[in-house]
């Protein structure tokens, strides 16, 4: 059942996301907020809703007719992992954005009330302003880190800024017979998804639907593009990147089995750094990784320093905490089994499962 648009408590209300003027107002708020991310944008959480069926919800608190607090959400439903209100769905960021005029506590109470109304036993805030300890929320501060650094002034300086061992890998990739394409066309999208779904199967992870990826690229317009590395005409590595406030974020990427031999992933990220600088970006945001994971160490090898992230989770009374962590020991067997699936079967089943991972 769709929650009624209107007030919940203490000046916090649900936004009518069917009203274009309301959506535009939220987009403007995120664009001007110093802590706004691509995942706070209605372009993101509405694209998620359209492509996966996971409802988009937005809470605001207003002071003097202006937005003082904004919390974007997706209501994620999974037959395996249950229901969760995530800020925001399929994202590594989100959470509550506030101004100096905001009163945060009523917003946290309002989202708890909304979760109970929607029979949703869990909430996760992925960054932003977090509830205080002892308020019924559990804070996580060491599980994930983000990696970002400034881009260099030109291509040679960018190469020189990479630590020696990783720079050697990039130099090897520059000697390979590889071509680079950047765009948003059907050719770009098809090449990306062919690589992406193979990469996810190899990692033991159900792949997201192409509809989700297309919806985000369409919603972001010039704020998203696809960079693909080809060998002998075939795509071997590809990444969808998002652009926000002078930063580029490579978000959905992957490579085939052959990509490692060709150093195609190394070439992909170096070319993206150079491409993003030419687009006017000054920051390369390598995104989130699980602390201590292979991706965590890969990003450190590029000279990026980890910045611990803080998340907050809430569980309704009487319910066990939700566990959809791919590194969880109870999911290890499922991951191994998924890695052995024939690619056509993994491609068919993956999106049906992944739409509930959130």
TrEMBL record:
<dbReference type="InterPro" id="IPR038740">
    <property type="entry name" value="BioF2-like_GNAT_dom"/>
</dbReference>
<dbReference type="InterPro" id="IPR050644">
    <property type="entry name" value="PG_Glycine_Bridge_Synth"/>
</dbReference>
<protein>
    <submittedName>
        <fullName>FemAB-related protein, PEP-CTERM system-associated</fullName>
    </submittedName>
</protein>
<feature type="domain" description="BioF2-like acetyltransferase">
    <location>
        <begin position="165"/>
        <end position="300"/>
    </location>
</feature>
<dbReference type="InterPro" id="IPR016181">
    <property type="entry name" value="Acyl_CoA_acyltransferase"/>
</dbReference>
<dbReference type="InterPro" id="IPR017469">
    <property type="entry name" value="PEP-CTERM_FemAB-rel"/>
</dbReference>
<dbReference type="Pfam" id="PF13480">
    <property type="entry name" value="Acetyltransf_6"/>
</dbReference>
């Amino acid at each position: 059942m769709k929650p009624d648009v209107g007030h919940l408590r203490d000046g916090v209300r649900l936004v009518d996301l069917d009203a274009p003027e309301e959506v535009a107002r939220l987009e403007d708020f995120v664009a001007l907020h110093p802590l706004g991310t691509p995942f706070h944008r209605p372009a993101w959480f509405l694209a998620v809703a359209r492509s996966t069926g996971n409802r988009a919800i937005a809470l605001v608190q207003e002071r003097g007719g202006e937005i003082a607090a904004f919390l974007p959400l997706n209501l994620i439903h999974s037959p395996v992992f249950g229901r969760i209100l995530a800020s925001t769905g399929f994202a590594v960021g989100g959470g509550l954005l506030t101004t100096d005029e905001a009163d945060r506590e009523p917003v946290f109470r309002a989202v708890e009330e909304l979760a109970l109304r929607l029979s949703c036993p869990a909430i996760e805030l992925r960054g932003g302003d977090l509830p205080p300890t002892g308020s019924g929320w559990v804070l996580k501060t060491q599980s994930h880190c983000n990696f970002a650094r400034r881009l260099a002034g030109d291509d040679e300086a960018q190469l020189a800024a990479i630590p020696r061992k990783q720079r050697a890998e990039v130099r090897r990739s520059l000697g390979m017979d590889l071509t680079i394409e950047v765009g948003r066309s059907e050719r770009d999208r098809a090449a990306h998804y062919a690589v992406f779904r193979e990469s996810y199967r190899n990692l033991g992870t159900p792949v997201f639907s192409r509809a989700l990826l297309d919806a985000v690229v369409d919603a972001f317009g010039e704020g998203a593009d696809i960079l693909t590395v080809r060998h002998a005409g075939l795509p071997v590595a590809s990444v969808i990147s998002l652009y926000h406030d002078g930063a580029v974020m490579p978000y959905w990427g992957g490579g085939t089995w052959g990509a490692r031999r060709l150093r195609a992933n190394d070439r992909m990220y170096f070319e993206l750094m150079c491409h993003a600088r030419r687009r006017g970006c000054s920051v390369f945001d390598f995104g989130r990784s699980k602390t201590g994971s292979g991706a965590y160490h890969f990003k450190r090898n590029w000279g990026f320093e980890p910045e611990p992230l803080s998340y907050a989770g809430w569980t309704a009374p009487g319910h066990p905490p939700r566990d959809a962590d791919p590194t969880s020991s109870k999911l290890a067997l499922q991951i191994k089994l998924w890695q052995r699936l024939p690619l056509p079967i993994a491609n068919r089943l993956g999106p049906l499962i992944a739409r509930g991972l959130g």
